[in-house]
Amino acid sequence: MKSAILILVSSIVYTVSSMGWYTYKFGTDVGDVIYTGQAHILRYSLNTQVPIKVPDGKQVSYLEINVESYSAPKVYYNNETQVASISFLPSQLTESDYTIVVRGVDANTTIDKNRHCGNVK
């Protein structure tokens, strides 16, 4: 029993010490910054939804999300609903921080659809 507890504690210490940054990029890096945000994700929050406030007359051309966490989350961006999602598995430690930077161009600007922020889900 004592050895099982020791192994568990060793695993937790190793996991805690291996926190890192994970970067996710969607779209073409053009345009002006139209939104920035940052927040803390609490422990046991498996899915965090971040609504992106896009000004009238603009469209998202690029979105970058940086997550500092113990393990890599899955990150999605839905351009139709303008919501970014940061998701963890139940087995992952979820406590983390994130920053978001969004660039946008005029709504009537044509963006290369092969690289544009689409429904990534």
UniProtKB/TrEMBL annotation:
<protein>
    <submittedName>
        <fullName>Uncharacterized protein</fullName>
    </submittedName>
</protein>
<keyword id="KW-0732">Signal</keyword>
<feature type="signal peptide">
    <location>
        <begin position="1"/>
        <end position="18"/>
    </location>
</feature>
